[in-house]
Amino acid sequence: QAKHQGRSQYQFYSPEINAQLQERLALENELRGALERGEMLVYYQPLVDLHSTEVVAVEALVRWQHPTQGLVSPAKFIAIAEANGLIVPIGEWVLRTASAQSRAWQLAGLPPIRMSVNLSARQFEEPNLVDIVSQILQETGLEASSLELEVTESFLMGDVQRSVKILKQLRELGISLALDDFGTGYSSLNYLKRFPVNMLKIDQSFVQDVTSNRDSAAVTNAIIALAKSLRLNITAEGIETQEQLEYLQRRGCHEGQGFYFSRPVPPDRITQMLKKSSQQMESMAA
Ligand code: C2E
Ligand code: MG
Ligand code: MG
Ligand code: MG
């Protein structure tokens, strides 16, 4: 009876919602096996020291090279992969790929940079997360101090005690931790103090209109002040203009990333950028 009623509700879906649902179901089906078929790619976006404007880190950002739809953005498939659990193997693959890439850059003698990788809520719930991270560091030969993991407040707030424990274990490996999309979550200052993170990343929604919207500027200034008083590093995401850059520089924000510097790019583009900056350093030293 209940099932029957449930079914009959489908007729109320509008055609547009139906089409969206169909697209999502199709993507979900195709996502199974995408990793095995070699369709996942990792792009990298530079993070720049806002004082020296040198590249000091890159963030690994996954892309899906879909057989017919081209490059699919994570905005389209991460939520699906979260819902069906595929994010766990995909996330582990991203971490392994990014760590191996970072080690390869080091072995090529390029200037050392931090590698930052996003963690999903589902990965954080896995009981063996710390072991997997530690195993990947060993396997790839990357020192822990070169790796940063990005977490979000929203998933840390689920079971705070457990979160604090896992974060501490990750820090004990020697890696850094960043709070991503900061300012959009619960922002409980009481918990913030307990989470052993090194870095706050100001969400791009504030940075986008920091020079035109007083409220965004107020939030940005407050986050920078908070980070400083907690002795945390601070990154601004989504810097697109010179004005935004100058504003954040004046406020003493440490690092930034955004289309103003570079979009996320394939690894060989980062190799070129790092080669150029090491040549510049050599010619300055000569
Ligand atoms: P995020 O971790 O906050 O990453 C930053 C996002 O902002 C990236 O989007 C990046 O391309 C975009 N971005 C950077 N600078 C600018 C800018 O100046 N303007 C604009 N408009 N956007 C900018 P992307 O690559 O589409 O990734 C979206 C989100 O998907 C990420 O947000 C992250 O939450 C998730 N994601 C990406 N890769 C992974 C992954 O490997 N694992 C997990 N769990 N999540 C991932
Ligand atoms: Mg991130
Ligand atoms: Mg972010
Ligand atoms: Mg974001």
UniProtKB/TrEMBL annotation:
The UniProt record lists the keyword Membrane: yes
Q: Does the entry feature the keyword Acetylation, yes or no?
A: no
The chain positions of domain EAL read 24-278
- Tree of life domain: Bacteria
Q: Coiled-coil stretches, from where to where?
A: none
Q: Which UniProt keywords apply?
A: Membrane, Transmembrane, Transmembrane helix
Task: Specify the protein name.
Answer: Bifunctional diguanylate cyclase/phosphodiesterase
* Section covered of the full-length record: 284 to 569 of 569
